[in-house]
Amino acid sequence: MISQRTPGIVAERLNAEELAANFADLHAPLEPHEAAVAADRCYFCHDAPCVTACPTEIDIPLFIRQISTGTPEAAAKTIFDQNILGGMCARVCPTEDLCEQACVREMAEGKPVEIGRLQRYATDTLMQRDIHPYTRAAATGKRIAVVGAGPAGLSCAHRLALLGNDVVIYDGHAKPGGLNEYGIAAYKSTDDFAAREVAWLLDIGGITVETGKVLGGDLTLDSLSAQYDAVFLAVGLGGVNALNLEGDDKSGVTDAVSFIETLRQSRDLTKLPVGRNVVVIGGGMTAVDAAVQSKLLGAENVTIAYRRDRAAMSASRYEQDLAASHGVKLMFNVQPVAIHGNGAAAEIELEYTASVDGRLAGTGEKTRVLADQVFRAIGQTLTMDESLETESGKIAVSGAGRTSLDQVWAGGDCAHGGDDLTVTAVAEGRDAAMDIHATLNGSV
Ligand SMILES: Cc1cc2nc3c(=O)[nH]c(=O)nc-3n(C[C@H](O)[C@H](O)[C@H](O)COP(=O)(O)OP(=O)(O)OC[C@H]3O[C@@H](n4cnc5c(N)ncnc54)[C@H](O)[C@@H]3O)c2cc1C
Ligand code: SF4
Prior knowledge:
Blueprint: E1 9-10, H1 16-22, H2 32-40, H3 49-53, H4 60-68, H5 72-82, H6 86-92, H7 99-102, H8 104-109, H9 115-128, E2 143-147, H10 151-162, E3 166-171, H11 179-182, H12 193-202, E4 207-211, H13 221-227, E5 230-233, E6 239-240, E7 253-255, H14 256-265, E8 274-275, E9 277-281, H15 285-297, E10 301-305, H16 317-325, E11 329-331, E12 334-340, E13 347-356, E14 359-370, E15 373-376, E16 380-381, E17 390-391, E18 394-395, E19 408-410, H17 422-440
Parallel strand pairs: 2-3, 2-5, 3-4, 5-19, 7-15, 9-10, 9-15, 10-11
Antiparallel strand pairs: 1-8, 6-16, 12-13, 13-14, 17-18
Helix pairs in contact: 2-4, 2-9, 4-5, 4-9, 5-9, 6-9, 10-17, 14-15, 15-16
The structure holds flavin-adenine dinucleotide (FAD) and iron/sulfur cluster (SF4).
Iron/sulfur cluster binds next to α3, α4 and α8.
């Protein structure tokens, strides 16, 4: 019988009931009474710091007041006016680093108003009623191509359609949603929420989605520029950095993003194999997501190995604690030097590191950790190969996503500047749409 102690990479370490419990909603949704109590903690600050801390600048005190007065649908509209993916952002935003960190009650009491959960309460209430709260402006006759159906592309397309433009979204994947559909940890977006949100968003009308269409394959920037009045690039970061070390090619060594994608698309988690001893290399959100989900699938030992110290880890303290609370071991100041095993990974060799004159260096002291599965989570890269200026490996932009080509805008993870977060992608897509609309319709 297979158990958590079975060697190698195998499926069915846990049974269906255990897996269902493990992958349930990370935070239970608020009941109406709980939402009222949570909303009552807000001081409705003037010049509220939580608003400034939100990349989409949602009027947080207003929407919380609307919840307090028993009008969650109005609260949802306040949220969607700034962030049409407010439902997903309520689930995935690192609120502990954004709005909730800035909340005056966090500063005073170490316990912020639960802005994220209140946002989810409001947006879920409206979406469950199947209401799309916008109607399109009169047709402008302008047509815009959006490449990439992730948060940046969807946000841009919705705003352009709202303003009366026609939009075609092209995406290389089989389903729209980008990393909302393929990347976000399963316990943050349950019940097919990503797909439901896309369907809801498209109710605005005027947007056609063409999946399985790849820029650089069937599509070129020149052909899109010739066919459309403008192009918005929202292709994210499709490439994954390599480890470049001895044994990197052994079976069992894979990209964390591919593992998470397979997990997100899996209809039966009992069939998904996972190692007994899993090691994740990296220090960001992707590393934490791969580690926690491996543990939830039934891996016996899961370790995150990060080359710098805890403070330098890009995963927030909340995420680090989430990993630790699921039994993931966090190792700091170690870098991988080799993966050992006879064809398949069995052990990973790590070297301790130290900062020498501000630079990271190996100390020569080494250790080995059992590892039948190793995930690379050391960052993603731009894969698009088009004639656009780049900066630090991303598409160079100025203003609201203007690229080096007149007719072409870009936003989200593929564009330079801003954090690689869902909410930032939504803000950049929205702002680019406003700029594209103003440019095409003569007000710029
Ligand atoms: C594993 C993982 C977990 C994450 N967890 C969180 C989280 O919890 N909270 C958070 O805020 N952020 C999280 N992020 C970051 C967040 O998902 C991204 O910042 C966000 O999705 C970026 O949106 P985007 O629209 O720019 O790109 P993406 O979501 O990457 O969408 C890009 C789209 O473009 C398509 N595409 C790519 N190349 C082409 C091409 N050549 N032709 C056509 N289509 C193409 C892709 O198929 C994809 O649909 C996570 C990221 C990863 C990798
Ligand atoms: S900072 Fe906190 S208390 Fe003030 S408006 Fe924002 S959520 Fe309310």
